[in-house]
What does this fold into?
Amino acid sequence: MLLAPNLKLFLIEVGDLSRFVGHFFQQWFKPRYEVAEFFRQCYVIGYKSLPLIGLTAFIMGLVITMQLRPSMVEYGVESQLPVIVGIAIIREIGPVITALIFAGKIGSSIGAELGSMRVTEQIDAMEVSGTNPFKYLVVTRVFASVLMLPVLVLLGDAISLYGSYLGVNIRSTTSSYLFWTQIVNVLSFSDVLPAFVKSFFFGFAVGIIGCYKGYNSKKGTEGVGRSANSSVVLSSIMIFVIDLLAVQITDLLGLN
Amino acid sequence: MEKKTIDNIKLGIFVSAGLLFLVVLLYMIGKNMSLFGDTYVLKARFENAQGLVVGNNVRYSGIQSGTVKEIKIMNDTTIEVTLLVEKKMMAIIRKNAVVSIGTEGLVGNKVVNIIPRRKQAPLAEEGDILFAKRSVDADEMLQTLSQTNNDVAVIAADLKITIQRINTSNALWNLLNDKSIPENFRVSVANILAATGNAGKLVNNLNDIVMDIKNGKGSAGAILRDSSFAKNLNEAILKIKSVGDNVDSLSHEISLVVAGVRQDINSGRGPVNALLKDSAIVIKLNTSLSNIEKGTDGFNQNMEALKHNFLFRGYFRKLEKEKENELKRQAKAKAEKN
It folds into this structure.
């Protein structure tokens, strides 16, 4: 059976990851708290990611608007362009695109950083020197990504909407006030809050998978590259899985 | 250390910006859903909610003024919609306002429209149930339209037949093509005009007559307006009536007499009967009359002899003289009168 070894490996991976997550929650509540390192990680993970995410979000907003325009014109609802784009960005595109870019940038960097530390035995050295490496390296990073991704998503949404506003104004003219009012008029809490809440889970998935892959890195420098790569791939997949679950849950709760 | 502080400040700005966007977005949505600020509740009952959902907009004369708070099924035919309306509208919405469910645009979200009426009414208060107008459903509209289409098809078919008949009718086309008809028509109209003028004059004359009668002129006027005439007429009629009554009693008496006579005749008694029926009496009467005639002749001779007698001659002469005097006096009186 070809599938059997792979299935076994998969189940081992899932089990290890689950134990890693359990360990994270175990360590999270315990003092002492690495506050300074947490803020440093917030700065690196959040603030430093803003230009990249801002650029992609801006382009995304602009492009979606311009792509949708011909169809909207065809149906004679060009005036509803801000409404459609606004709902798409706030509900889905903003959180998912931001999380994917975040996974590409932060997931890989965490995976590579922790992987190289593991490979060069710095983590072992930390343990010897009496510092809890899990607390110092993993908890701060995961917690920082959990809190920073939602902020990045919100800013990404804002920039995306600005890009969309410019996109609308390329062919026709609308005032920023009308644009904004049109979007806000159709939005409800059930549009904004589920998207906001799921971005916490995206952040957690990216942080915990990057840390898990880096923390358990093996086989020298080759393993570092692999852990960086697999952390991006796995966290991207997880983002979509969480998105799927989120839409099902909001649907079940009747928030759609 | 310096760098770390700057980094923290940057991080603070970054996080604040993100949260600010979230707060503004949520506030705007909340404001749109009338969650902030003072609101009050109005209600309306519909037969059909037509897809209205909680959170749909409420508009007063097209102005955004609230949202749908609750949609409750009261019974199988009544749905109560609770509207959350901004408090500032409390001074505007009146009890007689009409509520209807409409659509934003042609295919947009449902919206509740509150439409004011011109008539005055007290202001609507918290919890008032406003009058709900049944709005036209697209489905119903199409059904009606389909019915109309069928009717139009029938009418068109009939119209087609009618037009075909008109087209094939020679008489009608002849009538339409006849150029003399307009001329005749024009003449007719002129005649009618003249007749109308005459009628006008006639009416004027009648008016004059009526005026005369009103003023009491002429015999008709006298009859209608003179009160003394009416009195005389009345008296005359009364007299005629009394004469008639007398005639009546007279004729009654005559009839009694006649009845008596008839009775005598029939019974064979009485003088009339004797006169009419007894032939002996007739002969006697004849001889009596001839005797009287003879007697009067004798008497005349005697009287003539008496006139010539000297004893009575003076008396007769005196008689003749008086007669002559009388005639003379009469002639004299006549002459004086003239």
Observations:
- DSSP finds nine helices and seven strands in chain B.
- The longest strand of chain B covers residues 63-75.
